[in-house]
Structure formats: structure tokens, C-alpha cells
């Protein structure tokens, strides 16, 4: 029912400098696969086969990754090395990739608004690829798409975090409808731990209804002078319908060095095909 997924991949990735000085953070590999490909695989699994990328300067390698490399294909055609292309060929067979450039990096909210041209007027998923989400059963976006079918409103994925870490996240408060599902009535971006409404932190998976674009257009820059998606979602929540969902699975903050190392070890131990 939701066919499109937006990938804001224009950020600077300052927490991972100098690696990200000339290389997109989203192309950092977890073992042998770039972060953004994990996100695309999760979206395709959820039925969101149109992957809309909001890119920026210095991010051309992301567009190249989701395209054929003729020389490479020719070089390894018919050899035992073709197996290494299996996962990306599978993604290219199933997905459609569209791109738009964010010319000024004015924050996640601004990146999402830039993606409007690719999304149009349907509900859509959002993946922040530096949050790697893994689950043995259905992926996080597939879980959220299932919830969307029931509630028809924006959904944010949440995770409990230690209270002293809430200042790194958008944080929600709301009415608990059942275990792990909340109707949101308040959202705050990067609150001081003593003012935080809860320790339920928003992570990088969303389903958004398209009215978010009009709200974002009217949203003034907030924390750090950036247009914050959380502020626009807070407006949507006040209008009635934002759900927060504590997903099944593990999430790794691969935009930070410790999270990246943890994810690498986890994937190597649990998912890497050693052949
Ligand atoms: P982050 O807050 O992780 O920012 O953005 P960042 O610049 O990528 O990383 P740090 O904090 O400097 O290390 C969350 C997501 O939003 C995208 C990023 O690419 C990331 O996926 N983003 C952010 C944009 O696409 N455009 C922006 O203007 C800001």
C-alpha cells in the first residue's frame, strides 16, 4: 500500500570525520555492504520499491551504487566472483531509484521537504540509513507498514534509551494503546534530560502522511537553526494522529563510531555469509 520510501542522505556526517570528508557516511560499509543498501533492502522488503534519495554535493557514489557498473559486470561475468554482486543485483532488479539534490543542508525537515517532488501526495516511508535496523522476523519498516494499514496516520519508530542520553534524540510522550504502541501527544527534539517527557526516543524510521509537506513549509528553523522534522510531527500530533511504535529488532547508531563498531561485529557474527 505504501510504495515509496525517502532516503535523506545529504547530511555532512561530521561525527564520522575524517572518513566522511569526501565519502558519504551512507556508503560506509558494515562488513561488505554499504549502510544505505541495508536501508534499501529493508524498504523493498516492506513493499516500498521506489527509493527516493535526497542527495547533496559529494554524494554521487550513492547514485552510482544503485546503477549498473558495466565494466565490473563484464570483468567478472562467468567467474566465481559474480556471487559478490548477488545482493546488489537483487536490489536493482526490484527497486526504482530516483534522486533529487538538497542544495543547502538545512536539516532533516528541509531534506524531507526537498523530497516532495519525488514523493507526491501519497504516504511514504523514511529511512535514515545511519540507523541500521536488523530483525530476524519482518524488518522494522515492514512492521510499521502493517501498523499503517490499521491506523492510517504518521508513525515514528521508538526505542527506550538511558535517561541521560535523551538529549541526542527526539523524545515522545503519549497515551499507551497497547504494549509498545503509543498515541503521541508531545514530541521534543533533543531535550535536556531533566525536562524530557520520557525516555522513548525516535530513531530513523518513519511513515509519514503527505500533509507533512505543508506543515514543514510552515515550520520555522528550530534546534541548531535547522528545520526539524520533530517540530512538524509535533504539529501533526496536535492535529490528532501520530503513533509511536516500539519495534521488534535491534538498532545500531552507525553515525557514531561506537555504534558502527558494534554493528560491524554483530553483522559479522550473525549475518555475514562466509563463502
Ligand atoms: P544527522 O543528524 O545524522 O546529521 O542527520 P548528519 O549531518 O548526517 O551527521 P552528523 O550529526 O553531522 O554526524 C540525520 C539524517 O538526515 C540527513 C542525514 O544524511 C542523515 O541521514 N540529513 C540531515 C539530510 O539529508 N540533510 C540535512 O540537511 C541534514
Q: What does this protein structure show overall?
A:
This protein has 275 residues and is α/β, with parallel strands linked by helices. The chain has a single domain, classed as Alpha-Beta Complex (Spore Coat Polysaccharide Biosynthesis Protein SpsA, Chain A), CATH 3.90.550.10. Helices cover 32% and strands 26% of the residues. The protein contains ten helices and 13 strands. Strands 5-4-1-6-11-8-12-10-9 form a nine-stranded mixed β-sheet, sandwiched between helices. Strands 2-3 form a two-stranded antiparallel ribbon. A two-stranded antiparallel sheet has the order 7-13. α5 packs across α8. The protein is globular, with a radius of gyration of 18 Å. It starts with a strand and ends in a 5-residue tail after the last helix. The structure holds uridine 5'-triphosphate. Uridine 5'-triphosphate binds next to α5.
Shape: globular
Distance between termini? 37 Å
What proportion of the residues is helical, as a percent range?
A: 25-40%
Task: Provide the gyration radius in Å.
Answer: 18 Å
Task: Record the SSE blueprint.
Blueprint: E1 4-8, E2 29-30, E3 33-34, H1 35-45, E4 50-55, H2 60-65, H3 70-76, H4 86-94, E5 96-101, H5 108-114, H6 116-119, E6 124-127, E7 131-134, H7 140-151, E8 154-160, E9 170-178, E10 181-189, E11 200-208, H8 212-218, H9 229-239, E12 242-246, E13 250-253, H10 257-270
Parallel strand pairs: 1-4, 1-6, 4-5, 8-12
Antiparallel strand pairs: 2-3, 6-11, 7-13, 8-11, 9-10, 10-12
Helix pairs in contact: 5-8
Amino acid at each position: 500500500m505504501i510504495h515509496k520510501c525517502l532516503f535523506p542522505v545529504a547530511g555532512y556526517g561530521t561525527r564520522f570525520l575524517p572518513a566522511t570528508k569526501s565519502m558519504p557516511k551512507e556508503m560506509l560499509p558494515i562488513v561488505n555492504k554499504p549502510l544505505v543498501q541495508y536501508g534499501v533492502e529493508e524498504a523493498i522488503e516492506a513493499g516500498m520499491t521506489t527509493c527516493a534519495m535526497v542527495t547533496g554535493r559529494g554524494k554521487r557514489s550513492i547514485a552510482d551504487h544503485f546503477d549498473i557498473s558495466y565494466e565490473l559486470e563484464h570483468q567478472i561475468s562467468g567467474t566465481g566472483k559474480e556471487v559478490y554482486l548477488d545482493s546488489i543485483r537483487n536490489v536493482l532488479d526490484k527497486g526504482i531509484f530516483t534522486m533529487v539534490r538538497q542544495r543547502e543542508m538545512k536539516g532533516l525537515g528541509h531534506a524531507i521537504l526537498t523530497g516532495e517532488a519525488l514523493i507526491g501526495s501519497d504516504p511514504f516511508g523514511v529511512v535514515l540509513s545511519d540507523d541500521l535496523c536488523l530483525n530476524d522476523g519482518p524488518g522494522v519498516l515492514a512492521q510499521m507498514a502493517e501498523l499503517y494499514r490499521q491506523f492510517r496516520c504518521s508513525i515514528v519508530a521508538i526505542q527506550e534509551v538511558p535517561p541521560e542520553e535523551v538529549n541526542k534524540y527526539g523524545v515522545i510522550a503519549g497515551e499507551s494503546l497497547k504494549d509498545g504502541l503509543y498515541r503521541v501527544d508531545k514530541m521534543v527534539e533533543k531535550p535536556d534530560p531533566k525536562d524530557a517527557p520520557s525516555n522513548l526516543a525516535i530513531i530513523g524510521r518513519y511513515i509519514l502522511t503527505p500533509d507533512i509537506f505543508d506543515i514543514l513549509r510552515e515550520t520555522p528553523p528550530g534546534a541548531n537553526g535547522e528545520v526539524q522534522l520533530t517540530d512538524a510531527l509535533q504539529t501533526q500530533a496536535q492535529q490528532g494522529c501520530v503513533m509511536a511504535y516500539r519495534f521488534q529488532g535491534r538498532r545500531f547508531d552507525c553515525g557514531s563510531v561506537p555504534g558502527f563498531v558494534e554493528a560491524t561485529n554483530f553483522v559479522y557474527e550473525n549475518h555475514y555469509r562466509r563463502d
